[in-house]
Amino acid sequence: MTSKYMTWAFAAATIALSAVCTNLQAQAFTDNTQDAAPSLPVKLLSFSGKRLASNVALSWVTANEQNNRHFNIERSGDGTSFKTIGTVAGRGNSTTTVAYDYTDAQVPTGNLFYRLQQVDFDGKSTYSQIILINNTAAQTASLAVTPNPVRSNVFTVKFDNIPVGIYAISIVGVNGANIYHRMHNHRFATEVVQFYMDKKPPTGVYVLSASNGTERIWQKLVID
Question: How far apart are the C-alpha atoms of 13 and 141, rounded to whole Å?
């Protein structure tokens, strides 16, 4: 075979091999495209909640929605068994960010777990991550005086949610004068104690306080 024919044959083989490689690359791209996971119907950017007085305010934001019918808001007390407590309509189809909110006005005390169930128009659904809201009400320490106004040298004080310990009980006038002082061994978080003054103080407005050296709790006291 002459050099001329050899050159043509080499060129033809090169073209054929290039075509085969091109077809293989195209087939590989097609296969990858077919195997790729489909995009989710809703892209959830955030989901959060916070306590507001006796309610829990939930909010979430989506970045993309496809056939989004609605969101079911679900709540659980143990993070396992959830119950639907409300529904918020979805946008259907959207390519912009959409903000949603829901207020849970019937909240029990304790730990509360929330999640979203996103439901499509065809009935398919997906779930968000679970968030935890602590709805354990803080107990406030307080003193309650009865009767108030006081009309004698005897009065009763209710200690409510106050740590046990030794407390200095004082009655101080608006001018800063201390008209009553005694030590009290507070033995229970909540108890009712009767106090006696040597004599009834002058009529006026006073402050009754209980202090254990680090904390001071006070209550307005009126002597009539």
Answer: 92
pLDDT in tens, 121-143: 999 999 999 999 987 655 577 88
Structure token digits, residue 221: 């006291």
DSSP state of 135: -
Q: What CATH class has 42-134?
A: mainly beta
Q: How far apart are CA 180 and CA 63, in angstroms?
A: 66
CB 115 within 8 A of CB 128: yes
The span from the CA of 69 to the CA of 120, in Å, is: 5
3-state secondary structure of 162: coil
pTM over 0.70: no
Query: In this structure, which topology does domain 142-223 adopt according to CATH?
Result: Immunoglobulin-like (2.60.40)
Contact 165, 212 (CB under 8 A): yes
**Closest residue by Cα to residue 158 from 171, 146, 172:** 146
Give residue limits of the domains in the chain.
Answer: 1-36, 42-134, 142-223
Task: Record the tokens describing residue 34, joined without a space.
Answer: 């077919």
